[in-house]
Specification:
248 residues, alpha+beta, eight-stranded antiparallel sheet
Length: 248
């Protein structure tokens, strides 16, 4: 007959196989849910991080800019080395109208003037011609031609920067590219910042955003039309004029 001590000894219960399967299934569901949330929300997470910090890829200071009546050229191919045709920017708004948000004019003194609604900002005087942008081997890009150049007036400070997102996000699962056959797997944002400060304290800041694609064959390439997303004109005295894109 068993001793009383033996009768009172408790044996630990081992988790059944069914319980382990249940826990494993729950873990898989949680992992799938987190992956889905990241897939759906990673672009918005990238945009939030971009508000805090964007690493710089290139900086051009005191470089002339060109304007041919249609688009702006920043320097002489500085950004083209990183993004194909990456130094040409415009002022076209968003769908469905694609109206110009702002424009440049050349005044009677042959100075380039930025115009946004009733606000104006005089940049600099005419300074020769900017050469056409070229490919890496020196071949001119298709449709490119030399354009009038404008430079900073004495006492002005000019800079143009190219920056990128810290985070990239996955592309849609089902894509077809009939032109090259290469489908991007990741995307990120590029940002162009143009700042023009006058000796008087007046300042113009413009921000563009470009979505850049990545595939295993070509690496990071150019993306969609560059979007104008912010303009700030700060006069020497008085209130600044700020425009922020709200169409997307």
């Amino acid at each position: 007959m068993p001793s009383p001590d033996r009768l009172l000894t408790a044996h630990p219960r081992r988790p059944s196989a069914r319980r382990w399967v249940s826990r494993g299934g729950l873990a898989l569901v949680l992992v799938a849910l987190v992956a889905m949330l990241w897939y759906l929300g990673s672009r918005w997470c990238a945009l939030l991080v971009d508000q805090v910090y964007t690493p710089r890829l290139a900086l051009a200071e005191a470089a002339p800019i060109g304007w041919n009546g249609t688009w702006l050229q920043l320097g002489t191919g500085i950004f083209d080395r990183l993004v194909p045709n990456g130094d040409h920017l415009g002022f076209i708004g968003f769908a469905p109208d694609y109206q110009d948000v702002a424009r440049f004019i050349v005044d009677a003194d042959d100075r380039l003037v930025f115009v946004k609604d009733d606000a104006r900002f005089v940049l600099g005087p005419r300074a020769g011609t900017l050469p056409a942008s070229t490919q890496e081997d020196g071949t001119p890009l298709e449709g490119q031609a030399p354009m009038p150049a404008f430079t900073a007036a004495p006492g002005d400070t000019v800079s143009a920067a190219l920056e990128r997102s810290v985070l990239a996000w996955p592309t849609p699962l089902f894509q077809v590219n009939f032109m090259t056959g290469y489908v991007p797997s990741w995307q990120r944002n590029l940002y162009y910042r143009l700042s023009w400060a006058k000796a008087s304290g007046a300042r113009l800041d413009i921000l563009w955003r470009l979505r850049q694609d990545y595939d295993a064959v070509n690496g990071w390439t150019g993306g969609r039309l560059t979007d104008l997303i912010r303009i700030e004109i700060r006069p020497a005295s008085g209130s600044p004029v700020v425009w922020v894109e709200t169409g997307r």
